[in-house]
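re: that complex we talked abt at group meeting.

here r the seqs, copy pasted straight from the sheet so there may be weird spacing, ignore it
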Amino acid sequence: MSSVAQKRGFGAALWDWMTTVDHKKIGILYLIGGGFFFVVGGIEAMIIRLQLLKPNNDLVSAGLFNDLITMHGTTMIFLAAMPILFGFMNYIMPLQIGARDVAFPFINSLGFWMFFFGGLFLNISWLIGQVPDAGWTSYASLSLASTGHGIDFYAIGLQIAGGGTLMAGINFLVTIINMRAPGMTYMRMPLFTWTTFVASAMILFAFPPLTVGLFFLTFDRMFGGNFFDHTMGGNTIIWEHIFWIFGHPEVYILILPAFGIFSEIFSIFSRKRLFGYPAMVFATVLIGFLGFMVWAHHMFTVGLGPTANAIFAVATMAIAVPTGVKIFNWLLTIWGGSISMTTPMLYALGFIPSFVMGGVTGVMQGAAPLDYQLHDSYFIVAHFHYVIVGGVVLAILAGVHLYWPKMFGTMLSETLGKITFVFFFVGFHCTFLIQHWLGFWGMPRRVWTYMDGQGWNTANLISSIGALLMAIGVIVLVINIIMTTVKNVRVGNDPWGDGRTLEWAIPSPPPFYNFTQTPLVRGLDTVYIEKMEGNTTMLTPAEPVQDIHMPNGSIIPFFMTFGLFIAGFGAMFHQETSWGLPLLIFGLAWIFVSMAMRSVKDDLGFYVTKEEIQRDIDNARKGGRN
Amino acid sequence: MMKGLKKWRLFSLLAVLTVFLAGCGQQELSTLLPAGQVGKDQFKLLMLSSGIMLFVILVVVAIYVVALIRFRRSKLGDDFIPEQVEGSQKLELIWTIIPIILILILAVPTVYYTYKLGDVKAMEEVDDNGDAKHLVVDVTAKLYWWEFEYPDLGIVTAQELVVPTKEKVFFNLKAADVKHSFWIPAIGGKLDTNVENLNKFYLTFDQESEGLKDGVFYGKCAELCGPSHSLMDFKVKTLPRDEFNAWAKNMKATADKTAVANEDGKEVFEASCIGCHATSGAGEGGSQGPNLAAFGDRNRIAGFLEHDEEKLKEWIKNPQKIKPGNTMPSFEDQLSDQELNDLAEYLLGLSVEQ
Amino acid sequence: MDLNKKFTPETWPEHPERATLEAKNKFVGFWLFLGGETILFATLFATYMALKNKGPSGFGFSTQELYQLPLVFVMTLLLLTSSLTSVYAMHHMKNYNFKKMQLWLAITAILGLCFLGLEVYEFSHYVKEGFTFGNSAFSSAFFTLVGTHGFHVAIGLVWVTLLIFRNAKRGLNLYNATKYYTFSLYWHFIDVVWVFIFTVVYLMGVIG
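got the structure back, here u go
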């Protein structure tokens, strides 16, 4: 297995990636998959903004526009933001707690392939020309009325991807509960690990409702169900409840890991321990908890009655308190520190004002009567882009720059990184700040075009120009990645020089077993403690050099997901074609056989011998690394 | 160089001011220029919450800027190791309690207005004669048009809501096909029209629409409802009570007598259109297409097109091209140019105001 | 881990289901999975409650007329008993008594199979009466809730059958002890869900 470094053919490498259960490789796969969909969603966004560039524009047709907004939202949330964050969680979290892998490497791989095939399934709708068109929320009356297979792609694709997410969530939870290194108590866990933990717990409780909701939608559209058909006694409001019981926690699932990444960055590049660490942990948990109590604030205008609206309004505002605690703790972390203006730090510093703006507009919408005006207007578009782009996407870009050297052993160019930041940051505010006013001025969201003479022209033009700037930023990032990969200047264990947590104490990229010896954690920011005490290896081992147990790779996850993929097409076409039903059954049988194979075949993993590890340690020493 | 910089500063200041002044939008559809009690209440909440939030932003930005200026590594030197402060309970307490207070300041009026705006008990009130005390309008949202029925007055219209000023008007909202949402930005916040239940709320219209740019307030559908969601506009005409009464009377009267602008057009209408469209404003809602009794008085064709003969003919010829997904068939191949001309003239002559 | 390592009841650990790290992971992970399943069923229950007795105009079915309590009562007895027998099985697993464990698990499986048979009968009876899946919102919600439970029972049956046959020759070890244990957890979970279905759907349907 230490043959990883050997040169092999393309086929063998491909096989290796398809069968890998190494959390680091799966993390990179998540990043690649998520990055791909991020670009797809970004192109959709650009077309949307081009269409809205001027009044009465007809660059795209009304139907195509609805396809674009639906796919933009769905892609960005489910196929870009979450998978990219999962990539970081997968790669970094086990390193941060001193583990050699995640708890369920097999399921980890399965989760990735389900995300990937789910995303593929969803996007195949473009090729068939029947695309989801009822918005990423797919409210039931419209999603039932929508013709063609568009919504079917949505329901089945998200079902597959959502299953993968649920698995990943459970996996991260168990990893953090069971696999922390000696001395890594809960209150010594780096904040990124904490946010991963809470976000995973939220996934566990938020995704089952989505699963159920999507099944209802699938049944209604493809199998004669009547959950949402009011002429048959159904009720569309049930969908709205179910969707938002999932959907609201979902935004916290996105933002919490982003908070985690920024917490790491503030601490590293201020050379200071995170201010008020216990309060930060508590605030994270509280946000996670409150996140489940506020879903109906997306439904203030549905007509739930004043009492429900009032309760959910106040609950919503309550979330501002722990979020505020976080903001001030970050401010006090940089206060009195030594701020180094690196690219990741720029993103983190850009994040604070951006996210505060997004946060406060959230509280404004929490005021139910005011929300009657703001709901479904461009104000809400501005608000959620401020939190998701200003929070999550900035965190993703920051994370890419921060962890790139750890993952690939070479630094992204700082100059290009800063150029990316400037374009993206300026473009972001240019695009979305003005949209608050568009909302005030009466522009509803999800409009394909708008008439002249409503006072919206200039604002929309500004917004579209901003989008262009953001696109330039992303293009510079891609150039940066290509150039860096070509140059390939190798870096050591702690390329930023100020790493504080365990991932910065091991080689970049780490060996497949991560730690030659499981480390002993001596406190919060354990590597910083070791550094201050002059320990050049930056680690105190908790065990002698000994054999390491590692899991075997497997192709079964890939096959299992492929079965789901096939079954999905079968379900979709079973009503109008004769091959649909057999295909569905075949797909399900395929999954079952794969599962049985996995179940019946013993997979006990293998051992990396003491000698191999000792050889790696000696090589590293000779190589002049720490 | 410095002078140029100063000029640039002045210019940017001016630019910001212009944006700020223009920042209120247009009277007929801006939530920032509310023309009704509900909208004004919501505007008050907007001001209050914006004030609190601006305060929060200012505090954050102040700390942030000072920290950025004082604690740069380029200033402190590369070897500087800051003190590893663990935290401060006092500070944590401060920034927990102050936000709670701020939230409470916002929460109390929020709850108050939630109940105030949600109070529709008066809808059922009747006077001594058993007539409803308040005007109630039944709104039905259909694929890309709006039907307004006045059950107590026995009249129905479409696309252009006509209401009296300076009194509470109550609404029963419902969707006939998929979910829509009823929104008149300048008057007050929206409420969804659901397919399975009736939603009720009220609005007040304080200002007559006469003086506005187009003589009407703009209404919007705010919930994605299909391809032509963005074109599902309606207009609101607000009249003083006595003018409203006169309008209602005229509408009622369209049942018996109507001035016909073009007799041939009427024949075409009765041959091709009457299956879906009524020209009598008296009666109940529920028709296939918008009621056309007051068509000539309207401000827009199909809710958003210029109100002239040219556009009307274009619309009748090919409604699908103009408003994709609506339920009106195309008449391009069925009507001759002459028939179209007659029809258009007839339709534009349907009026209750002249 | 060595699969061939032989234990005696004395050397067999007190908690064989979480004696190794892998086992501990599975143990914790499965509990969490059941947490997610709880939410899944909660959503189904909520939907059922909202759509109970709802149908198109002129809808002729109601919970009072539809459900047959005696049949459901027998089903409940079967499933509760099977939960008990799986407890016996786990008792023997902890005492390293492989044969008795297998026996009790087989009894559990047979009871589960009987339950499933009765459920199939119940469903086909409803369908014959015209209460089909697509008949109304009520029927969709009913079949989805109870059917999802039935599907879980079926999965459990396949799972335990595979376990029994796969390990018949090689006996207990620390690798498959966790598998047996998680199965029994799963079976208890199914049982608890059924108790809720019995109460919320059937009892409250007929009496409430």
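couple things i noticed - Chain C has a mean pLDDT of 93. Chains C and B do not touch (no CB pair under 8 Å).
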